[in-house]
Structures are given as C-alpha cells and as structure tokens.
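Hey, resending since the last one bounced:
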Amino acid sequence: MTSTADAPPPEPLDAAKSAGSSEPRERTTHPTTPNLLPTFARVSVVIGAFAAFVAALVSHDAAATAAPDPKALVQPIVALAALTGLVLIGTAVARNAAVLVGKVSMRYYRTYAAGAPPEWIERPARTYMNLLELPVLFYVVCILMIATGRVDTAQVELAWLFVATRVVHAAIYLAVNHVPSRFASFVTGAITLTVLWTRFAMMG
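The structure tokens again:
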C-alpha cells in the first residue's frame, strides 16, 4: 500500500489541452511585405517628369501661328488602330498555339472558369482589352478635332505622344508585365489624353 506522499506528481496540463484542443496549435507565419516606397518614389518621379515635358511641349507649340491640316490626326489614329490589330492577331496566335501544345483546354474558352491557362498566354488578350478602353476617348477627340477643325500643332504632337504611351504600355505588358512600369505608362497616357481633351474644349 502506498501513501499519497509516494505517488508521482501530476503531469502539467498542456496549453492546448487546457484550452479545449486535442492538438497543440501551430504558429502561423506571414510573409514579409516588401518595402514599396522606393518603387512608388521612382514611379512618381517618372510621372512628374512626363507631366513637366507635356507642359513644356504645349507651351512651346501653342505659340506656333501656322495651323496644321486637321487630317494630320488621321496618321496617329491609324497607328493606334494598327497596334490594336497586331495585338489582336497575337491574342489569336497565343491562344491557338496554347491549345495545340496542350497548355490549355478548349473547355476553358467556353466558360472562362475552370482550367485557366498560364498567365503569359492571356497577356495578349488583356493587352488587347486595354487598347479598347482608354484609347476610345482618344479616337473620339481626334474625330471631333478633324470634324471641327479645332486643332493646332500641339494637339497633333499630343496625339502622337498618346500613341507612344500606348505602344510602351503594350510592350511592357506583353514582354515583362512589370506592374509599376505598366502603371507609369498608363498614367502618362491618361495625362496626355486629359490635356488633349482640355485643350480641345478650350479652343471653342
């Protein structure tokens, strides 16, 4: 017969068991968030420099006395339409090639739900959709300038500048898809288009 003094001491309760859990709780870890401030700073510098360039361009060309032919705006319109057509062809080639080599199933393109392909396959399609969004306002203002004759040298150069920003945006999206660079090129295009519309409205 043993006494209570000889009995082994009770085992300490596990923290998880005392909380009503049968297994110890695993500690969750969170990935370290990268410092994006330098990236945002660089993008802001690029956008600021571009805005200053646009302001200098407008102030310099606004002093020109000879008004250009409004039909000079047809060329940037055709150039942007050609870029859109090329990206559309690239979309068709990328998707059909992906199906042929087995990277994606035809079933995906019926519902665009299950079985999504790798991101790079759909880049041309997303680039094409981008070329059907903001550029619509570019086509409209150019057509209005041609119809009304309210155009000067600065407007023609701004039209070409907008086309250049869309070429850069498409190239970045298709080649590397670097989001900060893509954002910067998008904002520069939006700035150019805003100046185009503002100057057109003020010419009336």
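The two ends are 111 Å apart (CA to CA).

Sorry for the duplicate.
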